[in-house]
Every structure is written in structure tokens, then in C-alpha cells.
């Protein structure tokens, strides 16, 4: 996941530089909104996929955790 995409998922502008505390607060807010247990059974799969994407975005925006996109592409080929 690219940093700009991760920022958008957590509600930040793509070129912003949120602090770790801002990232954590946005993550908690988004996780609460898309927690699978809060959705009816027919919409649970959508909530699970969003929940996973938000969790990935959070881990990507933590300092030192996200690989540059060229390393991800090189590892996948």
C-alpha cells in the first residue's frame, strides 16, 4: 500500500504528514466505524475488507513500517 493511499483511507489529504498521535486517533475512529461486529450479516464481508485495509494503512503510516513501492514491486516479481 502506498503512503498516499494509506493517508486517504484514514481521512488525511494525500500529501499531508500526520503525526503518530493523529494517525492513531484516525485509526481508532475508522476501525470503530467499520468493525465487522457492528454490521448485519449481509454487509459483514464489506466491513471486514475495509477493516483489513484500514489496519494495513495504519501499519503503513507508522514510522519505519511501510516499504517504498519499488521494493514491494521487486519482491512480488
Description:
This protein has 77 residues and is mainly alpha-helical. It has one domain. Helices cover 61% and strands 0% of the residues. It is built from four helices and no strands. The chain has helices spanning 3-9, 20-33, 44-61, 69-76. The longest helix has 18 residues, at 44-61. The chain starts with a helix and ends with a helix. Residues 70-77 have low confidence and may be disordered. It comes from Chenopodium quinoa.
Sequence-ordered SSE layout with sheet pairings:
Elements: H1 3-9, H2 20-33, H3 44-61, H4 69-76
Helix pairs in contact: 1-3, 2-3
Please summarize the sheet with the most strands.
none
The average pLDDT score comes to 83
Q: Structural class, from helix and strand content?
A: mainly alpha
Total E-strand runs = 0
End-to-end Cα distance, whole Å, is: 16 Å
**Proportion of residues in extended strands:** under 5%
Domain J: 5-66
Pfam families: DnaJ (PF00226)
GO molecular function, one term: protein-folding chaperone binding
Organism: Chenopodium quinoa
